[in-house]
Amino acid sequence: MKRTNIQINTNSSQFFKSFKVWLFLVLVVMTELANAQAWRVEGNQLLRDGNPAFLSGVNYLPSKHWLTILRNWNSDVVERDMQSLQSIGVRGIRFFPLWSMVQPQPDKLDPVVLDNLDKLLEIANRHGIQFQITPLTGFMSGGMYYPKWATGNIFKDEKMIKAEEFYMEEMAKRFGSNPNVQAFDLGNESNVMIGANKFDVTPSEVAKWMSRISAAFKKGAPNALFTVSSGTGLDRYYTNETLAKNSDFMVVHPYIYWHGTLQQDPWIGQRTLYDSNYMIEWTSMMGKPVMVQENGASEEWLPGPDIPNFLNINMLSNWAEGAVGFLWWSSHDIDQNFKIPRDIFMLDRSHYTYKEGRFSDLEYTEGLFDIENHPKPAAIEFKRSSELVEKLGQGWTDLLPVCYILVPEKHDDFPETMLQLINPFTLAKQAHYDVKMCYENTSIPVDATAVVIAGFKLSEAGKKSVSRYLTNGGTVYQSEIQDFANEQIQISPTSQELENPDFLIMKRAGGMTLEGKVKVNAKLNIHKITNAPEGQMILAKPDVFTRVPVDKGTYYFFSGNLENSLRHTYNPWDFDNSNLIYSTFRPADAIDISSKLVELFHKKKGDSEILVLINHTNTKQETEIYSTKAISLQVQQSGRQVGEGFRIPISVEPFEVVILNLKHI
Fold this sequence. Notes:
This protein is an alpha/beta fold. It has three domains: 41-392, TIM Barrel, CATH 3.20.20.80; 400-583, 3-Layer(aba) Sandwich (Rossmann fold), CATH 3.40.50; 592-664, Immunoglobulin-like.
């Protein structure tokens, strides 16, 4: 008996040891699975716990110590900051561990800085706030934050790349399984470091570098979401394709000042307020979710009292456009007395003000809160807007007819391409399409109602793609340069310059000719149409716009430089209604509104249908909602009945966003 008891105890001890090992492995696997399931990507949706999610948040600049909070730790400061952010509905923050502070040696990370980042994450978690981490932040707010040892070309010097791979893998191992980390961004606007440092590097070398860095991260945290942010616009190094290959979801930084749209319209203009929508659709061409990772406004760009309205319109319009998140720049103002420590940035590669320990003036007052955590008016607006977005939720299907703006084959110069295409994008928005974008040398998507080719000649691949679309019954509009129906439509070889021309609409409907006027508030160059099929001319006096059948489809041709002429006209919209040209090929059975200055969305989820009306102006818009079938409308926010029938009038206040519940009668 005694010998038997000893044997039982020995087996029990081994059993419990094995059980502990087994339990530990199970817990590790369950932790990894829980984190992987918390945030993931499915198609063009960002999912949290399996449900479509929208991340409303900010880019976090601590109210004290700026980003050096990781070195000069103060838990009370962070606690107050997170309380303030939670109070206005912030659900996520993006944060920037400066490269120079985190990696003091090529093969060593600072343990104190990392411990403090752990503490920051824990405090954010207690306030229900998710985290985006940007480990390789070597550029920030005009300064270069490289470690002292980082003296080579970070994009192609092998020793540098190996050190960066080590850094990314270690950060991924440490934080990648943290359930409070929503995602990682390679580094803040890392493409800025190419031009700012005059690095001798090619686009293919940058693509290879990005692939290695993202692979190093995924090696350390295979299940964590990863993305790569670019500066305010993409470029020939950071293209849609390169970013998509290395990102689980796409991110955009649509600043109206840096994009140049603020030079075309005031901030309350059309192109400025569709700037972020354009960026969302540009990156959506990759078929992945798109997050507005940065958007904001300095008081140097627009009056301070207008910033809340700018925030409101952008957040709601971006949500309706299909973005999966909206992060404002930034959470807090920067203390005017803060001096940037000289040991963390490279003086010779930073903005000239850095030698005085200061940022550019525009950086100091972009927060939702001041340095004492007092909410500014924009913070109050953020709370209202984020609550509405949260109430509406994700998972809506868009019902408006889809207009694709075709992108030229040669589009490496992203800023130039954007300024060229933002005009047809805006006109299509004013005609109340669901506006999307498509590369000319890819197949036209099956959801296309119409395709716009604005002022450029198609490549051979583009012609084949559009020809297939026309053959199958598609609708195509082209301006200035004619690629189709050359036998049916002839134009004069000489051009004519017209200043702010009026065109008479000649449109056949039900055996009658309807007449009206289209005014283009710009200097227009046209080639008069000398021959076209009888009865197909849409604009007359002079003849500039016609349509012809091409196989099963319809081809519309405008023989002037409409979109390019508007590009070179500052804020033409009050006296321009050339959006009516785009309206001619919009289906008549779709719900529409009369005001071109009010953005329209028509959405459905389950048995619910809504209209979203967004006033892109600082004046009240008296508009009318048209439907070929009788409907009734109710304001979702207040429950007020708007009316019912086929034509329903409604007033939309300046900058107002109105959500209407729609019922079919």
